[in-house]
Amino acid sequence: MKRRIFGPRLAGIVGAGLALVTIFFEPALIDSARDRLFDQYQRIGPRSYDSAPVRVVEIDDAALETYGQWPWPRHRLATIVDRLNAAGAASVVLDIILAEPDRTSPANVTANWLTAPVLAPVAAELASSDLSAVDHDARLAAAIAAAPSVLHLTARAGETGGVCPAPLDGARIGGMTAGGLARIAPSFRSVVPSLPVFRAAASGEGFARTGLSNDAVVRSAPLIALACEGKEIYPSLALEALRVSAPRLDPQFAPPGFKVDANRPCRAHVKGIAGQSVSEVSLCGLHIPTTEDGEIWVHYAAPDAMAARRISVVDIIEGDERAIEEAVKGRIVLIGASAEGLRDVMVTPLGDERPGVHVHAEIIEQVLGGKTLFRAWDLMRPVELAVAGLAVLLLLLFLPRMTAAAGFAVWLALAAALFGGAFAAFKTSRLLIDPVAPGLVLTLSFLGAFVVLFQQEQIARRFIRGAFGKFLSPLILERLERDPGLLKLEGETREITAFFSDIRGFTTISHSLSATQVTSLLNQYFTEMTKIVTDHNGLVDKYMGDGMAAMWNAPIDVADHPAQAARASLAMLKAVDKLNAEWRSDVKQGLPEIRIGIGLHTDEAQVGNFGSEDHLEYSMLGDMVNLTSRIEALNKEYAAPIIISGAMQARIPAFAVVPLGRFTAAGRSEATEIFALAGDEELARRPAFQTFAETFSAGLAALEAGDGAAARRYFGALKQGESYGLSGAIEVFLARAGQVSS
C-alpha cells in the first residue's frame, strides 16, 4: 500500500493556519500562556544578586512601633534624607506620596483640634506667631534640596483628582515626542504631584506605576508614560533614580559606558519608530532595551535579595554614622513602606509578594548590572513565527513518510528544541523568546497531520492483516503493522527463498475420495503446512489445488531465510508423517496416506502486489520462481522429498544434503546443480550420515563417469543401512546405473 503524503501535509497546513488565526485573533490567550512560561524561566533561573547598588530604607513594623503611626511629621523624613545625604547616598528616592501639607506642622496643627475653650489661648498664640522656621514641610524641602533627590509622582487613570504639571526640567524626556508616542506608551489622564515646595527643591520626579497583567503579576514596568491627554511625557521613578544618581554613583556599580558630563547633565532619550514602537531608552550612555510600548521586563532576583538590600528606617535615624555610610555610600537609596497596612503589595513571577519599592529596586539593579531582559514584540514575533514555519516545514516534509510513533517523536524533538532553545536564550543572553506561539503552530500542524497519518496507518494495518494475517508469522505481521512502510506493495526486486510443494499422485487419490473427503484432507494438510511456514517467518504465496507456494525474506527482511525455509521443509515432512498416523487411526475419515515433494531455490525475484485493479495479491514473479517450480517437479523423477538448488545449498552449507547432479530447465541454457535435503546441521554432523553422503556422492560421480558397475556397488551399499528418507532416490540411481554398460 503506497503511503499518501498529500493528505497529512494538507491537514498539517490547515492545523498551522488555525494556530495562526488563534494567535492573531485571540492574543490574550497566547500572551497569558507565554507570560506563565516566562515566569517559570525566572523561577528556574532568577537574576543573580551581587553587591547591589541599591538599598531600600523601609518604614517597617519596627519603625511604627518606635515612632508611632503613619504619617509621621515630615521633619523626621527630613532627618532621614539628611542622614542619607551625609552618608554619601548617590540619590535619595522617596517612594512616598507628598501631595498634601503636613498636618503635624505647628501652623497646621490647630486645624485638627476640637473646638474647646481650654485650647483657644494656644491656638491664638500659634496663629499670631511666625512659624516658618519650624514648618515641617519647609524642613523636608530643605533636606530634599540639599540631596540628590527623586520624588514620587502618582499616575491616575481617572478623570478627576489630578493635575498636569510640566515635568521637572531635568526629568524631561528627549528623542521621540509625545505625539510620536501616542497610542504606543502607557497613558494616564492626570498625575498627582508632590507639593510645589518639594518639587521646586527636588532633583527629579518619576511615576511609580508598574505594569499589571490580568493575573495581577508584575512582570514589567513602563520607563516612560504619557499623561494629560498625551501632552506630557513623564519618566518612571527608577529611570529618574538612575539619572539623578549618576554624578555620585560609586564607579564599582556603574556599568561600562555609563558616563557623566558635569557640563551636560544626563537626560533620558527615547528611541523607536514614531507612531509604531519604542526600541530603547538611553540614559548617560546606558542603552535600556524596552518592549514596543516602552516597558522593561523585570528580571527578579531570588526573594532573599530583599533582606540583603533592606535597611530599617530605625537604623538610619538612630544608627551609627559610619555604619550608615558603609551601607549607602555611592548607592541609590529608596525610601518606602514595608509595614503591614502601608505597603503596596506586588506579586512577582517568582510567586512571592514584595513591597512595590523593592520592584523599583529590582529594575535599577538589573539596568546597572547589565542583566536586563529583552523582548521586542515587533522584532521577536516575526522571528518566532518564522521559526514556527521552519519547524512546520521540517515536520511536514518528513512526517508523512514516517510511522505515527516516529512522527510523534519528531514533533516531541522539535517542540523540545523550541522550548529548550527559548530557555537557553533566556539563561545565556536574557532574551525572552516566546516558544508558545511557535509551539502552538507546530502542535496544531502536527495534530492535523497526525490524525490523517494515523487514519492511513489504521487503513494500512487493516489491509496488512487482511492480506497477510493468515500467511505471515505474528512477529513479522506485528513489524509490518508497526511500520507499514516496510511493505513495498508497488513492487521491488529482492533476494528471496522460493518454495513449491505438492502432494504426490493427488489426482489419482482424489478420484477415490468423495468431495467432502478431498476438502477435509486438503484443509487439514494446508492448515499444518501454513502454520509451519508462518512459524518459520515465511509467507504463503498461494494454494494451487494440492500445491502450495511460499517465500521467505518478503515482504520484509528475514535473517538467514534459506535456513528458515530449509527447517520449515523438514518440519513439513514430519508433519505429513503425523497426519498419516492420525488418518490411519481414524477409520471414519477414510483418508489415505500421502507423500509430498518440495522444491527450494534462493535468488532474486520480483515481489509486490500483482493482479487487477479490483483484485490484488502479494506474490512473487520471475525466472527464479519458474526454476523453483521445475525443481519441485523433479521430485517425481528423483523420488527425493526435498530438492534444493545449488545456490541455496551454498547458503546452508552446514545442512545434511547429498548431490543429485545437474539439470537444465526449459528455456535456460545453463544447467542447475541440485541437491537432496536430508536433514539439518545435527544430522550433518553424524559420522554415519557423513559416510552415507560420501558414498552417495561417489556413486553419482561413478555414474556420471560412465562406470555403471562402480555406481551399482556404491548405491547398492546404501541400501544396506539407514537411507535418511532417500530410499526412493537410491533406487532411481541404481536403475540408472543398471542402464550403463560397464
Strand content: 15-25%
Overall strand count: 27
Average pLDDT confidence is: 85
The biggest beta sheet reads: 8 strands, mixed
The portion of residues assigned to helices is: 40-55%
Radius of gyration: 48 Å
First-to-last CA distance = 62 Å
Weakly predicted, low-confidence segments: none
Descriptive notes:
It contains 28 helices and 27 strands. By secondary structure, it is of the alpha/beta class. The strands form six sheets. Strands 20, 21, 22, 23, 24, 25, 26 and 27 form an eight-stranded mixed beta sheet that branches. Strands 1, 2, 3, 6, 7, 16 and 17 form a seven-stranded mixed beta sheet that branches. Strands 4-12-13-14 form a four-stranded mixed beta sheet, with helices on one face. Helix 15 runs parallel beside helix 17, helix 16 (404-429) runs antiparallel to helix 17 (436-468) and helix 17 runs antiparallel to helix 18 (474-482). The chain is rod-shaped and about 160 Å long.
Task: Based on the model shown, name its key terms.
742 residues, seven-stranded mixed β-sheet, 20% strand, rod-shaped
What's the topology here?
Layout: H1 6-25, H2 27-44, E1 54-59, H3 61-67, H4 74-86, E2 91-94, H5 106-109, H6 120-128, H7 136-146, E3 149-156, E4 174-175, H8 178-181, E5 187-188, E6 190-192, H9 196-201, E7 204-207, E8 211-212, E9 218-222, E10 224-227, E11 232-235, H10 237-245, E12 269-273, E13 277-283, E14 286-289, E15 295-297, H11 305-309, E16 310-312, H12 313-318, H13 321-328, E17 332-337, E18 345-347, E19 353-355, H14 356-368, H15 377-398, H16 404-429, H17 436-468, H18 474-482, E20 492-503, H19 506-511, H20 515-535, E21 538-544, E22 547-552, H21 561-585, E23 596-611, E24 616-621, H22 623-633, H23 635-638, E25 642-645, H24 646-651, E26 656-663, E27 672-679, H25 681-684, H26 687-704, H27 708-718, H28 727-738
Parallel strand pairs: 1-16, 1-17, 2-3, 2-17, 3-7, 4-12, 5-10, 23-25
Antiparallel strand pairs: 3-6, 8-9, 9-15, 10-11, 12-13, 13-14, 18-19, 20-22, 20-23, 21-22, 23-24, 25-27, 26-27
